[in-house]
């Protein structure tokens, strides 16, 4: 597992405490120090770290060990977790490694953190080799013109990245298929199986599947894009100006992380030609307290899309829509997965044509809630 997967996993898990989280079992005789060697071993990269990074990695290892051995007591509820999370300074000068240290030090990860980090890329729900034998119609590789560039990734490989639960009905009873796509360094199964996948599976009109992107979306974004269309929670459509996002040496800092800088050639090309406007109806919900993507406020928010094609776009910052109320509080990048307004907007988008609309939502009711209604009950 690469370092960024560890850091992002820690930051994701911090938003899930108090709700069902994955449970894995370590192999007998698997000691914590051995686990650390696997998680943080970067010798194969040939990239020397600065003394400061080695010291911070050592601090993170020590804090994870304290959680695993009970020296640090984790928070017990999501409400407590969000309250503690709000005490972490919101500054772009902290690296993602420093934020991970803060998260673990404050008890924002469970005592099973070692088990989770050990099994998170091997668990069945995160598989990238799913046996999906049913042929799609039309095929996954569409063409608009004879002169279209060829796809680099074979269709069987693309299909095998989709995890289709055994409960999926393939359109029976007019159920709407929901494709859940993870963020950079987050395994899709661990991200969604314990929240949105369960709630959408229980909904009478929806049927969820998810995409397990090889390498947990840490490879070349251009290749990853063959597998996905849009991310609507804590979106990164314009890149991020956080300079400390990639604090490790270049061979270790994965391509997807390098490519997400605001001024990278890739992001500039992506924004060009109205690429920063939606191609399909889009509901984008985000938080101004995002640790990973900035800016996330005002007209320049990275998650805000234009609508030059007139397809319909809703850009919603929760601190604006629910100003001064619980749902507009301190939600970090991954904690937006449990935000009640985000959930309400997604359900609204499913029930109507076009994007989710605030005017159709009872904001007086939704905004006074701290958590999405399914948290702790699935």
UniProtKB/TrEMBL annotation:
Keyword tags: Signal
Record-level GO BP terms: antibiotic biosynthetic process; monocarboxylic acid biosynthetic process
Leader peptide range in chain numbering: 1-18
Gene3D superfamilies documented for this protein: alpha/beta hydrolase (3.40.50.1820)
UniProt-listed PANTHER family: LIPASE B
Protein's name according to its UniProt entry: Uncharacterized protein
Organism, as annotated: Penicillium cf. griseofulvum
């Amino acid at each position: 597992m690469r370092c960024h997967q560890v850091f992002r996993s820690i930051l994701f898990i911090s938003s899930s405490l108090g709700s069902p989280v994955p449970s894995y079992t370590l192999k007998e005789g698997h000691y914590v120090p051995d686990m650390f060697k696997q998680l943080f071993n970067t010798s194969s990269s040939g990239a020397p770290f600065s003394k400061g990074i080695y010291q911070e990695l050592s601090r993170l290892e020590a804090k994870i060990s304290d959680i695993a051995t009970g020296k640090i007591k984790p928070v017990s509820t999501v409400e407590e977790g969000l309250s503690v999370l709000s005490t972490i300074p919101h500054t772009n000068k902290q690296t993602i490694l420093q934020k991970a240290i803060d998260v673990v030090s404050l008890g924002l990860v469970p005592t099973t953190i070692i088990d989770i980090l050990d099994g998170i890329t091997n668990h069945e729900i995160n598989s990238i080799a799913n046996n999906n034998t049913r042929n799609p119609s039309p095929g996954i590789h569409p063409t608009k013109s004879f002169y279209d560039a060829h796809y680099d990734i074979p269709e069987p490989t693309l299909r095998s990245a989709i995890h289709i639960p055994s409960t999926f009905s393939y359109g029976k009873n007019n159920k709407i298929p929901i494709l859940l796509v993870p963020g950079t360094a987050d395994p899709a199964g661990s991200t969604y199986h314990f929240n949105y996948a369960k709630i959408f599976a229980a909904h009478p009109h929806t049927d969820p599947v998810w995409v397990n992107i090889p390498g947990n979306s840490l490879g070349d974004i251009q290749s990853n894009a063959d597998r996905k269309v849009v991310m609507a929670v804590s979106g990164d459509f314009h890149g991020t100006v956080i300079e400390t996002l990639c604090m490790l040496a270049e061979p270790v800092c994965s391509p997807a992380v390098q490519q997400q800088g605001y001024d990278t050639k890739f992001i500039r090309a992506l924004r060009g030609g109205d690429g920063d406007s939606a191609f399909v109806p889009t509901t984008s919900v985000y938080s101004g307290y995002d640790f990973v993507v900035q800016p996330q406020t005002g007209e320049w928010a990275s998650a805000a899309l234009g609508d030059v094609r007139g397809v319909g776009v809703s850009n919603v910052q929760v601190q604006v829509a629910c100003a001064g109320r619980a749902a507009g509080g301190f939600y970090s990048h991954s904690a937006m997965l449990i935000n009640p307004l985000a959930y309400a907007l997604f359900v609204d988008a499913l029930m109507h044509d076009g994007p989710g609309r605030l005017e159709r939502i009872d904001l007086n009711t939704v905004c006074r809630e701290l958590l999405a209604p399914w948290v702790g009950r699935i």
